[in-house]
Amino acid sequence: MARDFHPSIRAILRKAPEEGIFSYPLRIRDPLTKYVRGRVVVIGDAAHTFRPQQGQGASSAIESAGCLEVLFSGTRREDVQSRLELFEKLRLRRCGPMHVFSNMLPGPDGYAWMVENIKPFWDDPARPLPPPGSRPMSFPFREFMYAYDIREESKKALVGHQQQKRLENHPVQTRFHRYLQEILFVVKRLMQRFARTAPGHKELPSKFRSSSPTPSPPPKS
Predict the structure, then answer these.
(1) pLDDT tier at 171, thresholds 50, 70, 90
(2) Residues 49-62: pLDDT tens digits?
(3) From CA 144, how far away is CA 104, in angstroms rounded?
(4) Cα 153–Cα 155–Cα 156 angle in degrees, nearest 5
(5) Which of 98, 110, 152, 218 is deepest in the core (most CB within 10 A)?
């Protein structure tokens, strides 16, 4: 097994007694797709059994503890289930990619394998994946792993969750909010159309641009 190793390594191995050599295989576990069942939640190795290639096992467990601390600070009994669901959503999007990275195959096919297997967990264009050709533990991978603040992400998610809950508890406000969004969308489209057909028009500021394609103006009679 070690015949092609450097002579210095073979010399060390020859000094090891055969009865004192043990094999500790590293097993690959597929990422879980759920961390919560009822009011039971798993974190750490119970949730994500990483191989040690990325060194993210313990730090991911600490992140999960910090996420729970933010989400459950001052919570009420009736909020427990929804906060657990929010926790699961946040942590799957974080731990899922870490798990895939740790299982990433060596060699030229590893990146394509990673992109395919990370799909169930990652779809955030604001934080792109490491570019093709990146090797595990290269700067793009380290940037993806370490440029992340679990407390800030948890706080932002909690604010959005609380706002959504308030809207759900006030159906009139929910309908008004939806109608307002539709009106603003129509106004943006009209402003865009009039600006493009006006003589000497200038490009609208980005906040007034619509992400949908602008229809062509009607033909002149």
Answers:
(1) low
(2) 888 877 788 999 99
(3) 15
(4) 65
(5) 98
- In Å, what is the CA distance from 128 to each residue of 13, 108, 124, 136, 156? 44, 20, 7, 16, 19
Cβ(122)–Cβ(129) under 8 Å? yes
Distance, in Å, from the CA atom of 27 to the CA atom of 29, rounded to the nearest integer, reads 6
Dihedral of CA atoms 182, 183, 189, 194 in degrees, nearest 10, equals 170
**pLDDT tens digits for range 13-41:** 888 887 777 778 888 888 999 999 998 99
CA 191 from centroid of its chain's CA atoms = 36
Tokens, residue 46: 């119970």
pTM above 0.70, yes or no: no
